[in-house]
Structure formats: structure tokens, C-alpha cells
């Protein structure tokens, strides 16, 4: 963890520019698709973290899809943003399900129609 934080802080300018541009555009696309400004603002730090983590993983494992360093940074950051998008969408869906369950559990009592203790209808056997 300390190694990741050290590499994330001392990352070169080119990687920072690529991460900022790709995360910014991903945030704009998220804003247009979801039409929720706050949700897009929450997703952008996730995109940045995903891009930096994937770039770190590529460097540590020595996985280089091409021989060009700049192209590898773009590929790593793009893959990180896509993975972060999937992870954020799964977390968003999970929290929506949990919220729905909580709302169903804490409904107001006047929403539930009580059964009468004595009914005027005759019993059917």
C-alpha cells in the first residue's frame, strides 16, 4: 500500500495528464448518460483511482501490451476507468437494492391495512 501511494504521488506529468483527461471525459459521458450531476461527481474520483491503480498494476507486473511507454499508459488508464465504471455501477446497484429493502422494512403503519378482528362476513368452510 505504501508503495502504491508513493508511486501515485510521484507519477510523471504525462500519466497525470492522461488520467485527468480520460477521467474528465468519462465523467462528462457519465453525466450525459445518467443525467445526475452528483452521481457524475462521485464517479470521477473512482475513475481516477481506477486509472492509477491499473497503471500501478501494469508497472508492478511488467505487463506491457506494446513496446511504446506512452501507449501503455493510455491502455492501462483506459482499462482502469472501464473496470472502475463496472465496479461503481455494481456498488450503485447494490446500494439501491439495500435501500429498497430498508424502505420496505420501515414503512409507515398507516400504509398497511390492518385486518379487522371481527368480520361481518360469514365464515366459509
What does this structure look like?
Helix content is 74%, strand content 0%. By secondary structure, it is mainly α. Helix 2 (13-34) runs antiparallel to helix 3 (37-61), helix 2 (13-34) runs parallel beside helix 4 (69-105) and helix 3 (37-61) crosses helix 4. The radius of gyration is 25 Å and the shape is elongated.
Topology overview:
Blueprint: H1 2-9, H2 13-34, H3 37-61, H4 69-105
Helix pairs in contact: 2-3, 2-4, 3-4
Q: Could you tell me the strand content as a percent range?
A: under 5%
Mean pLDDT: 84
Helicity range of the residues? over 70%
The N- and C-terminal alpha carbons lie at a distance of 70 Å
Structural class: mainly alpha
- Uncertain runs: none
* Radius of gyration, in angstroms, nearest whole number: 25 Å
The major pleated sheet works out as: none
Count every helix, treating DSSP H or I runs of 4 or more residues as helices: 4
List the quaternary state of the chains: single chain
The run of helices and strands is HHHH
Shape: elongated
Total count of strands = 0
Amino acid at each position: 500500500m505504501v508503495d502504491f501511494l508513493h508511486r501515485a504521488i510521484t507519477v510523471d506529468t504525462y500519466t497525470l495528464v492522461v488520467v485527468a483527461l480520460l477521467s474528465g471525459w468519462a465523467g462528462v459521458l457519465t453525466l450525459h448518460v445518467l443525467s445526475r450531476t452528483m452521481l457524475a461527481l462521485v464517479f470521477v474520483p473512482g475513475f481516477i483511482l481506477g486509472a492509477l491503480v491499473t497503471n500501478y498494476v501494469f508497472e508492478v507486473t511488467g505487463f506491457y501490451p506494446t513496446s511504446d511507454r506512452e501507449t501503455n499508459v493510455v491502455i492501462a488508464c483506459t482499462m482502469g476507468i472501464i473496470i472502475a465504471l463496472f465496479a461503481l455501477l455494481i456498488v450503485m446497484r447494490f446500494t439501491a437494492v439495500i435501500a429498497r429493502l430498508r424502505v420496505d422494512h420501515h414503512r409507515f403503519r398507516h400504509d398497511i391495512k390492518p385486518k379487522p378482528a371481527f368480520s361481518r362476513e360469514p365464515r366459509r368452510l
